[in-house]
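I have a small job for you when you get a moment. Can you supply me with one protein entry, sequence and fold together? It will help me judge whether the discrete encoding reads sensibly. Write everything out right here, beneath this request:
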Amino acid sequence: MPVKSDREYRFFSSFEPSGENEPYTVRGYASTFDEYVLFEAEDGTQYKERIEPTAFDGADLSDVVFLFNHEGRVFARLKNGTLQLGTDEKGLWVKADLSSTDGSRQMYEDIRTGLVDQMSFAFTVAPDGDSYDSDTHTRVISRMKKLYDVSAVTFPANPNTSISARSWVDGVIEQERAERLEAERKAEEREKVLALLELEKARARE
């Protein structure tokens, strides 16, 4: 497998205000378990990715924070109960209470009014926590190491241009190219050996 960048980012879905029964609370999915296209090469080959439903089992979720654009001040935190995470049949859901500070309440208003409506999350994959099928060009993440943050984002990072995703895909493309060239070289060598054998047989018949 190619070497992966340490921290990766993925965009999946949007936030929604919970409603009048839960003021200043938003919900959404930081990750889904559907297969998606991670990158499309110039030749049209689609490199895909899928996060398994069990990927977050055993992951370090001890101090996940809710941020804006993956940086700056913290608006909610798992440690103090203002952030909740869990998995269901769809993916990893997020529930954030944004009532605790003026800044977090303003973040809620930005989400409620649609000024900010997208979400992404930052994570690392556990050692040997993923696999790659070269036939389908699909990476499967089966085990996460750590989830760092879930973020409301102005412009979600496109997986096609994400440094971590592109680095991983470039490694796969280079590896597959090297394997293809090696297979072609071996095929040429076999053809040369067979040609020599045929030549020797022809000489023997003379």
User: Anything to note?
Assistant: The chain has one domain: 8-158. The chain is about 25% helix and 35% strand. The longest strand covers residues 144-153.
